[in-house]
Amino acid sequence: MKIKEYRTQFIQELTPIYDAGEAESFFYLILEEKNQLKRIDLALHPDLVFSEGEIVIWNSILEQLKKEIPIQYLLGKTSFYGLDFEVNENVLIPRPETEELVEWIIESQKSKVKSQNIRILDIGTGSGCIAISLAKNLSNAQVFAIDVSKNALATSQKNAENNSVNVTFIHQNILETEDLQQQFDIIVSNPPYVRNLEKDEIKKNVLDNEPHLALFVADDDALIFYKKIAELAQQHLSENGQLFFEINQYLGKEMIDLLEKMNFKIIELRKDIYGNDRMLSCHCEER
Ligand code: GLN
Questions:
Q1: Domain residue spans in the chain?
Q2: What is the pLDDT of residues 71-95, one digit of tens each?
Q3: What predicted TM-score, i.e. pTM, was given to this entire model?
Q4: Which residue's CA is minimally distant from atom 2 of ligand 1?
Q5: Are 145 and 169 in contact (CB under 8 A)?
Q6: 176-188 burial, b for 16+ CB within 10 Å, e for fewer?
Q7: Known binding site for substrate: residues?
Q8: Which residue numbers belong to the known binding site?
Q9: Which keywords accompany this UniProt record (predicted)?
């Protein structure tokens, strides 16, 4: 079968679920990953065909897409901050909002002296996207990353190797951590922050496929991780150190109250590309 004909059929079958542009972009992503062909190859060689074996593989991917399994899991990878990351059902698919958080952290370091080494801790690293992109872009940083899930850490470890960066991964439950052992210049976290009451807002493909451990907080206590991390930061943030959080869009004010009560000084509450309160940075007062 001609690839061009298969493309038409593929897009048609997906359009009840995805818009045509999205379905088309899925087609080319899979074409590149599975057949090492780009859009231009198809334009230059309109007679290219899929073998029967290739059609079997494509049909199986198509069926999974129809079940709304995220394309990133089907391809086993995604891109974040210009780097490739392996992803699977043990880790959240990195979000563009989180790229904005990484951008903010990198930007915050621009004015600082490069010769001085800094220590960064990423709490709840998942795929490792924050820790690894910071390690890649901040050459003076020594990066540490914690996760409660051993399976997630196996993935983040591999991602660090694939991106040729050195990150120290630690298997630890932050809620049970009393002492971080050392001081950090930056502590960053994108912890679970979705409450059960917000479950209806989460898209079906996210809900059915992504790890709930990374998304939801128990008992609707959406601040539990932030409170614990802020407590640890009171002891383990170095002088002039900064705390960066990705947050629940509905809890910007609550986050500010919590942190100010704990003697942190808010640097900024930032919105994401969608216009939602999504990121916050603060530092310890009177240091
Ligand atoms: N922003 C993510 C979502 O919408 C949630 C990420 C998180 O809980 N840390 O699915």
A1: 3-67, 89-284
A2: 999 999 999 999 999 999 999 999 9
A3: 0.92
A4: 215
A5: yes
A6: ebeebeeebbbbb
A7: 190-193
A8: 124-128, 147, 190-193
A9: Methyltransferase, S-adenosyl-L-methionine, Transferase
